[in-house]
Design a protein that fits this description.
The protein is α+β, with helices and mostly antiparallel strands. The protein has 1 helix and 5 strands. Strand 2 and strand 3 form a beta hairpin.
Amino acid sequence: MAEASLPALRAVMVDERNGRIGRVMGSEGPYVQLRPLSRGKEWDVPPDQLRAPTQAEELSVKVAVVNGRWGR
């Protein structure tokens, strides 16, 4: 995947290898770095293993983040 086709910084993406959803924090070498929306450690994903989340996936993870902030 060429640099021009890398996802935008801060875009929400899905790691197709494991279904984890994260925010694009940058790229290093051949990998895109994602960070969980709720906090946590970044992980590397090959660009060809990324996809945009469905609306349901994105909404679900955002609700989970908000619920976590409120201790639910």
